Amino acid sequence: MTTHTVDATQELAAFLRTRRESLHPDELGLPSRRQARRTPGLRREEVAELAGISIDYIVRLEQGRGLRPSADVLEALARALRLAPGERAYLFGLAQQRPRTTDKPATTAAPSLVRLVTDLSPLPAMLMNHRYDILAWNDEMADVLLDFGTLPLSQRNAMWLCLMHPRIREIYTDRERVVREGIAHLRAAWAAHPEDQALTDLITEFMAGNEEFARLWAERDINANGRGHKVLRHPDAGEFTLHFEVLMPLQDPDQRLLIYRPADEESRAALERLCAWG
Predict the structure, then answer these.
(1) Residue 108 predicted with pLDDT over 70
(2) Collapsing DSSP states into helix, strand and coil, what is residue 247?
(3) Residue 5 pLDDT > 70, yes or no?
(4) Are 16 and 77 in contact (CB under 8 A)?
(5) What pLDDT, on the 0 to 100 scale, is given for residue 195?
(6) Which architecture does CATH list for 8-94?
């Protein structure tokens, strides 16, 4: 059995050709040409004109001649070829470049994700953006941690709560590990979103105002866990253990869906009692 590896240069060339050939000049408002078209879709010179790139460069890219286009060139090609978000990400991945993020991070959850969080009951669940801002939660998560709706928007942030809120500061038995993993996530998000001034400001605030955060941030740990367990010491239900899973919606990859599940029958019983009281 032969295993074929991806030749990124040739795949980039083929991808650009197929996307160019799938477009029609009428769709882009280009003037009609009298002479018959030998190939379907746009001509290379039309893509070059739309992208502001030389025809020779387009030719060399489509022939797979070993070029590594810059992020600016890729962005221009993505616009010219009307690439969908997933296609744009694929183009940047083939060229080993990082796409620039221009969209502002979500500060509200899409209605479908809000419904999903609710439908996950009786499992505690909540949705966060890459800054750890809490966008949606169900009643069970409010019972386990606290009712985020009673907090001002500036405090609806999982890292802020873990560092600053007296109840959340005491609820995790292995609090330093929880904080360490949260900081690892924030560091990765900070590197991936250098344009997010709100995230930079949040980290600056933590660095200046919280010695624990500053100490752990300086370790530059980026090993964030998307699966594991947390032992909680709840003021009403006592101590119990929850497995957690962090999922990323395909349509909203900068958001995180956190789901808790009881780790054993004792924890399940404690969670059921807690939610019944809530």
Answers:
(1) yes
(2) strand
(3) no
(4) yes
(5) 82
(6) Orthogonal Bundle (1.10)
Taking only the tens place, the pLDDT of each residue in 183-240 is 999 998 888 888 889 999 999 999 999 999 999 999 888 877 889 999 999 998 999 9
Amino acid making up residue 167: R
257 burial via Cβ count (<10 Å: 0-12, 13-18, 19+)? buried
Topology (CATH level 3) of domain 111-277: Beta-Lactamase (3.30.450)
Burial of 12 (0-12, 13-18, 19+ CB in 10 A): buried
Q: Which residue has the higher pLDDT, 8 or 4?
A: 8
- Angstrom distance (rounded) from CA 90 to CA 113: 25
**pLDDT tens readout for residues 68-91:** 899 899 999 999 999 887 788 888
* Amino acid at residue number 16: L
Structure tokens, 244: 């957690």
107 token code pair: 């500060």
CB-based contacts of 111-115 (< 8 A; 24+ apart in sequence): 113/249, 113/252, 113/255, 113/257
State the Cα–Cα distance between residues 270 and 234, nearest whole angstrom. Answer: 10
Beta strands in the chain (DSSP E): 125-129, 134-137, 227-234, 238-247, 255-262
Say if residue 245's pLDDT is above 50: yes
What is the domain partition of the chain in residue ranges?
Answer: 8-94, 111-277
* 3-state SS, residue 268: helix
- In Å, how far are 28, 72, 157, 242 from 97, measured between CA atoms? 27, 10, 31, 38
- The CA-atom distances, in angstroms, between 178 and each of 1, 162, 259, 275 are 45, 8, 15, 23
